[in-house]
Design brief:
Helix content of chain A: 40-55%
Number of domains of chain A: 2
Shape of chain A: globular
Largest interface: A-B, 34 and 34 residues
Strand order of the largest sheet of chain A: 4-3-5
Oligomer: homodimer
CATH topology of the largest domain in chain A: Arc Repressor Mutant, subunit A
CATH architecture of the largest domain in chain A: Orthogonal Bundle
Bound molecules: manganese (II) ion, zinc ion
Structural class of chain A: alpha+beta
Mean pLDDT of chain A: 92
DNA sequence: TTGACAATGATACTGAGTCTCAATATCTTC
DNA sequence: GAAGATATTGAGACTCAGTATCATTGTCAA
């Protein structure tokens, strides 16, 4: 994510708060700066840790309160990767339809976009009498190619 | 799921246990009978409740111990629908590649299969140097068509 | 029948996420 | 800039799905 995109996402979120008559606080600034200062997926607990480094007054409660605002604004997506915690993705501001492929051997995650996929989902949904709102495709795989090249390091090693 | 398929799935699971030198107990029988006696998606707690009706000695611990065996055998799939509990699906014995479309308004869930989808996922994964192991597509939608026909009852009603 | 050991239930525990509430900060109006 | 209305805060109690522990019981091969 380019510097300009980060600033744009941040501005959009502050506008979102204003539209909903919500207040811009020091804690929310620290959280938003953290979220749009990375392109990594993160957990709520990671976000708490990182945001505390910017402003030690940020509490767990505020992080958990701010995450739904971030997802509601459409700038961050909440994802389930089958773990017992949720994963948050700040890359939707830029790439609102991307999906993920996960290597079960080494936990590598690769993002991808596909217009053909989006179109097919629309087609299937329409055929069943639905209108798509959101979608989430997770492919669990093994990175055979990379394993051959020695780039897939099994966890057990 | 036809009666014969249910018996087949149950037999497969008992074989699976035998292959792994695991024992066939009364509690496991009650759980398996329950799982393959329905084609509904269920939670672990629901399974506990239903299995207890068949054999009141079934405990929560045994249900939670048996579920990983069922998923490992490939006859049941574990799914995340964005709730804070997992959903289990006994229909994979019959339809090992189906996916789900969920109406956010009325919580209706429709299952679908698509060879084109499977093929596209394979194509995308191969292109990125991965070999697909499992996949999960969730489409959140609103059932416009059914709403028009009065079949989509909003939760608030 | 016996013995090795897999499986069991009860229950304590874990940990992500939610709720509560008194104290505080923001923002608007004057 | 002060005041007032009210949104937001942190601390910590709480919830609840899922896991771990352990003494007891059940399975099954020999
Ligand atoms: Mn992503
Ligand atoms: Mn299903
Ligand atoms: Zn890998
Ligand atoms: Zn509906």
């Amino acid at each position: 994510m380019a510097e300009s995109d980060r600033i744009a996402a941040k501005t959009k979120f502050l506008d979102f708060l204003e539209e909903k008559n919500l207040r811009i606080t020091a804690q929310r600034r620290a959280i938003v700066d953290t979220v749009f200062g990375t392109d990594q997926h993160f957990t709520a607990e990671q976000l708490l840790e990182w945001a505390k480094e910017k402003d030690s007054s940020v509490s767990r409660a505020t992080v958990y309160r701010t995450l739904p605002l971030l997802t509601e604004s459409g700038l961050v997506h909440e994802m389930d990767f089958g773990k017992d915690y949720k994963i948050y993705d700040p890359n939707y501001a830029d790439h609102p339809n991307h999906n993920h492929i996960i290597c079960d051997d080494c936990d590598k995650i690769v993002e991808f976009e596909s217009d053909r996929l989006d179109q097919l989902e629309d087609e299937i949904s329409t055929g069943l009498g639905f209108k798509v709102k959101t979608q989430q495709l997770r492919i669990n795989a093994s990175c055979e190619e990379m394993k051959r090249l020695g780039e897939c390091k099994n966890k057990g090693n």
